[in-house]
Design goal:
Number of helices: 3
Structural class: mainly alpha
Order of helices and strands: HHH
Largest sheet: none
Shape: elongated
Helix content: over 70%
Distance between the termini: 81 Å
Number of strands: 0
Strand content: under 5%
Length: 64
């Protein structure tokens, strides 16, 4: 008797109980906006970090 793969049984049961809907396929514009906001946010955080690093280097480079 072959072994029963319980993961497949659970996945099939769950898909019958709660059918999945592809929200990202229906709303591609929202995904694009999320990506643009993420890229701009990462750029701003990178700019802030580079400013902090350059300020710290300038502060330690001054002769005491």
């Amino acid at each position: 008797m072959p072994a029963i793969n319980h993961a497949l049984v659970a996945r099939d049961t769950f898909s019958h109980i709660l059918p999945r809907d592809n929200w990202a396929n229906r709303e591609p514009g929202v995904i694009v906006v999320f990506c643009i906001v993420f890229v701009v946010g990462c750029g701003l955080i990178g700019l802030w970090v580079s400013k902090c690093i350059s300020a710290r280097r300038a502060k330690t480079a001054l002769p005491a």
